[in-house]
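Handout, section B. The chain below has 243 residues.
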Amino acid sequence: MISFEKEFRPQYPTPLVDQIVDFLTDAIIEGRLEDGKRLVENDLQRKFGVSRGPIREAFRVLEKNGLVQIIPRKGTFIKKISQEDVLKIFPILAYLESLAARTAITHITTVDIENMELALARMAEASKENDLGSYLRYHLDFHKVFIRASKNDALIEIIERLRRQAVWFRFSYLYVEKSFEYSMSVHRKILDLFSKKDADQVEALVKEHFLIALERFTRLLEPNTQELKGEVQMSEVLGQRAV
């Protein structure tokens, strides 16, 4: 029987499927559901007090978001994070988000800056309370402001799709858990650079932030491994950083 530690309490009129997706997403990214664990429909029906339909639809959404894998005739399983996944996705995000940051400089408004300030203040509050789930939501809000301020629909769509991947969410949780102080410091600097409209420096800092995070996370995945695939390429990029 699956144990979530938290209770599922439906809140209407929000669609039931959306609530199940959000509940299971939080359980996965916070590590309350282990990698590779099978999600059994009957267990979830009893746990949530719902019919099979919403559970199956939620599974399809979670699979689309990269959080579970549906294997025909076997079931639905929490997707495992591999070092290969991390090394594939994070360098892409580093370059795409830094491009979005640079592009946003010419479009960002006073309201955007205020929204980033608000998200940063909420991140600080969540970090003091050690509330990782809330911290990550406000962290995402912070990034969404400048990503969408880029006004490049194709770029926005690609970044948001990659950010929905299991690798991104699970990485963020594990990384931020050990790096509140560093993360807050970097995001304050990013905000200051947007206020100054310094395109070169904000692009460099966003890229550096991702690549340093990638290096730290690969060490979390395999703490005893010193030579990790891709570290040489990453260190070359970091050697060229401007901040």
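Note. The radius of gyration is 19 Å. Compare this with the example in section A.
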